[in-house]
Amino acid sequence: LAIVATMRPWPSDAQNLAEALTAQGRASTFYLEPLGPGAASAVLADAAGRELTRDESDNALGACAGNPFLLSQSGVSLRSHDGAAVTSSGRDGRLLVSRFGGLPAEVLHLAQVASVVGTRFRPSLVAAVAEVEPHRVAFAIRTLVAAGLVRDLGGGQVEFVHPLFAQALYDDLPGTTRGQLHGQVMRALVASGADPAQAAA
Known about the structure:
Elements: H1 13-23, H2 37-48, H3 54-64, H4 68-80, H5 90-99, H6 105-117, E1 120-121, H7 123-130, H8 134-146, E2 150-154, E3 157-160, H9 163-171, H10 175-191, H11 196-200
Antiparallel strand pairs: 1-3, 2-3
């Protein structure tokens, strides 16, 4: 009898159990890579239920970075919006954010702050905007890296792996909160020595 299971890396209970069983020689663990372009296109088209234009396909593939769940949700969005661009707003965006709801609340909050900065951000800037200690942002980054949602680019730069997820986090913020965070980001950039015109952009 063989049991085959798939899991996300968070919450960590299932992964910890799998690693313990593997260490005991009672299980084997395989880490899945993102879908390649061919498979990703097939998942997207199947979920959309129609042939996609080159622009639709390219936009979705770039935003989802080979994540099957994000690809299927993008395809459903394209189907329901009759050819509209891939969206993370409204119900679609809430579904994307809720899918990652197993993450600690502070980690999701700091990820939302980072989403205001953009798909690439500096953890030190997020700490300044969120007004929290750098070690708490470092913990959030480690958690998000383990979850496969961000990657460390080195040189103090971090990047969201899936731009669609970053956009969903951003869109899930109330408009007033987004405005306040944009102002805080600009003030933090100017305080760190950035040119005001660049900070405004």
